[in-house]
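Researcher: I'm preparing a figure for a lab meeting and need a structural model of a single chain. I don't have an experimental structure, so a prediction will have to do for now. The sequence is pasted below. Please return the structure as C-alpha cells so I can convert it later.
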Amino acid sequence: MLSIIQWKACVKLPPRKSRQTAILFIFPLRTPCIFIFADNFFNFAAGSAVLHHFHDYPAFFSELARVLKPGAKAVFSEPFFDGYFWPTLFLKNAIEEHGLTLDAPGLGSASVIVGLSHFIARHRGNHPALEHMTDKHFFRESEVSSAATSSGFRSVQFSNVAQPDFYTAWMPYFLDTYGVTHQEVRRSAIAQYDRAAALAGPLLPELMSHFKYIVLQKSW
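Model: Understood. Here is the structure written out cell by cell.
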C-alpha cells in the first residue's frame, strides 16, 4: 500500500509472514510528482487532505496511475468547493449586513476563509498565482474526474465523508472552526444557511458537501 502525505519519508515493513509492503511516501509540496517506484508496483494507495496542496495534481494522478497495478484503487479525502463557498458567502453577507469589516472583534479567522475562498475561485488552474498558497484547490467533481480519466483511471467515484445529519449543523460548526463568536453575525449567517437548507431539503448534503472521498480505479 502507498500512503501519501508530506515532508518526510519512511518505509514500514509488515510482519515477515505477510507478503505485502506498506510504504509511507511523503514529499515537499513543490517537489515534482516523480515517484521512485517501478511501474505497476502497488495494489492500493491512499491519502487524506493532500491533493489540494499540490500545484499540478493531474500530473500527480499520472504518476500514481503509473505505479499502481492494473485494476488497483486509490482513495483520497479532499475539500470540495461548494461546501466551503456557501458557508463563506453566508458569513460574508452577515458581516456586511451588520456594517462590519472582516477584521472586526469577534470574527476570528473570517478574513482567512473569505480571502482563501475568493482567491482560489478567481485563480483556478493558475499555478503561478497559487504557488504561495498552502491550500491551492477546493475541488469540483467534474475537474477531478477529467484529470483522473485522462491519467489512466477507468472509474472515479465520490461520496461524502460526513454523514447526512452533519449538514443540518454545518454552519455553526463552520463558524466555530474559524472562531466567529460575534453573536449577531452568527445568528444572521445561521439563518441564511437554514433558509438554504429548507429549500434544498434532502439535497442539502450534496449541496453543502465540504469533504469527499475520491475513489480512483486504474484501467485493466
